[in-house]
Amino acid sequence: MRGAVEVCGLVLGFLGCVFGFVSLHIDSWKESSDYDDVIVTSNLLENLWMSCAEDSTGTWNCWYFPSLLALPGYIQACRALMITAIAMGTFGLVATLVGMRCSRVGGENYVLKGRIAAVGGVFFILQGLCTMVAVSWYAANITREFFDPLYPGTKVSIGDGLYIGWSSGTLALIGGCCLLCSCNVKQEKLEYRFPPPSRGAGFTHSASSSQYGRNAYV
Questions:
Q1: According to a count of CB atoms within 10 Å of the terminal CB, is the N or C end of the chain lower?
Q2: Under a CB-based contact definition with an 8 Å cutoff, are residues 23 and 164 in contact?
Q3: pTM attached to this predicted model
Q4: Rounded to a whole number, what is the distance in angstroms from the first to the last CA of the chain?
Q5: Domain coordinates in residue numbering, the chain
Q6: Could you tell me which CATH class the domain 2-31+75-188 is placed in?
Q7: How many CB atoms lie within 10 A of CB 14?
Q8: What is the rounded CA–CA span in Å between residue 124 and residue 154?
Q9: Cα distances (Å, whole numbers) of residue 35 to 38, 155, 207, 211
């Protein structure tokens, strides 16, 4: 049962890493909304790295943000959190592969392997927390601008990248909790058993008894 929980935690953590990588590279963290627009002539998409526009003819134009220092503070923070999440997920995968019971790496010291698997679970939890904070912070700014009647810019809505990011954070958190619940960090109890009597000792004892019997009758 413990091995199955470890495998489940590894699979969920791996999927969390994959979804986080996809979310970081997808274009649509936020996209233009049709709210209060009578005629829509272009579709705007934006993520942490660039902004894209599609006109009515289907032509795409994308441009990267010119300077990191010119970006709003929350975008800089979300970039740092997502990169940290990818790094934490990578460390979590390596630690989990080393610490699993079915892995041959690290020998048969299951106490040490359990602790390494627990470290992998902690890394997955940190990945999930970083991802959830980043996508939730970004979504909170989108929501604030959308419902602000004095906001002069274009109204935008939550894009697919944020939903993938939320899925990534949820999978990573569940995978980390599975690893923490399945790890064995306590010293296993040793069972002491008396060794069975050897066959030679039994024959010696019987031989001596029989010899003693013969001498008694003489």
A1: C
A2: yes
A3: 0.75
A4: 67
A5: 2-31+75-188
A6: mainly alpha
A7: 19
A8: 37
A9: 8, 7, 102, 108
